[in-house]
Amino acid sequence: MNKALPQGWKMLKFEDIGIHISEKIAPGKTELGRYVGLEHLDSESLRIKRWGAPSDVIGEKTRVRPGEVIFGKRRAYQRKLAIAEFDCICSAHAMVLKANENAVRKDFFPFFLQSELFMEQALRISVGSLSPTINWGTLKKQEFPVPPLAEQKRIAEILWAVENSIRKTEDAIEVAERYKRTLMKHLFMYGPVSVKKSKQMKIKQTKMGKIPESWIVHKVRELAEVVLGGTPSTQNSMYWNDEVPWMVSGDVHKNIITEVSGRISKLGLEESSATMVNPPAVAIALAGQGKTRGTAALTMIPLCTNQSVALIKPNESILIASYLYYNLTHRYKELRSMSTGSSGRGGLNKRIIESIHIAVPPICEQEEISSILSSIDNRIALGHQQQVDLKQLKNGLMQVLLTGKLRVAV
Q1: Radius of gyration over alpha carbons of the chain, in Å?
Q2: What is d(CA 117, CA 114) in angstroms, rounded to the nearest whole number?
Q3: What residues are paired with 357 via a beta bridge?
Q4: Rounded to two decimals, what is the model's pTM?
């Protein structure tokens, strides 16, 4: 097997590459202030950007020190691993690993763990059907090709250059999103005026809070038509996968809808209670998992929806769709709080949507507010695309550098 290795590379068992840290600690008996669970790790990201407190959890956990890697051994297909930048405890569903610096460099080790070379082998040895888990006893015996230390140094330099660009892009996106939230709060209270001018504005108190004196509060039913969706019978293939765009609740996370997940036929549209609505309109998720319920999106194509999404088609002589979209996006938490039913399974309905109050400025101000926020959205979207491109570059480089298909000068 070694004959097939690139010159200077070695086959090593994982126990010679990584050191398994198994220092156990009880959450109630630690002075450490942070707990990192698998829910705090993002797939394919080496950063830990959120955490909980030890008081949030019970049961034995693992001690983690800065520089060590938290690797999600349960459901490893989610590819959750990150470098700790602080002292903490972590979930028992994770392994804590650090580089054996006799064989691999500390700066090379995280990329080795992220590589297809490692992950394919790790997934292959996972045991269990519902929550497949990697056992250290099996993992430590697995063999992997490893480049010499000098080549690891060059590989790490290249990959960290890309990783740091990814992080800078992430940080720029977060700054833009925070600015957008702050700006929305200002725009929906004072309108499209500077902070200096807002101090001289005449403001009135309404059931929606403070708004400019010239704005008028209406209910959605007074400004728009609310259209509900439906689902054709799944038993009839003639109703499906045809020319009619059919939106489901998860599509709202695209924010600006230019394509949707589903397609139905004209026959399926006639058979169901769904209705085609021309753009622009605002889609709002009435139900859905996680953060979906209450999320709004702006539609840019003719479409219909399933019963978990309502379409709001405003009278654009009074209310433009883009302004309504940003207004409802700004009030996401408020919309979720309007849900009926239990907190876990509550939902919105047509009556609730029609009763939502909207502070309506003159059309010219609506257009200006929409233009300002759209400009920020475009910057954020560009950042997300740059992030995708950089991650693809990183993954491509790992694929060739960590297999020896591309060698780097030492």
Answers
A1: 26
A2: 8
A3: 219
A4: 0.86
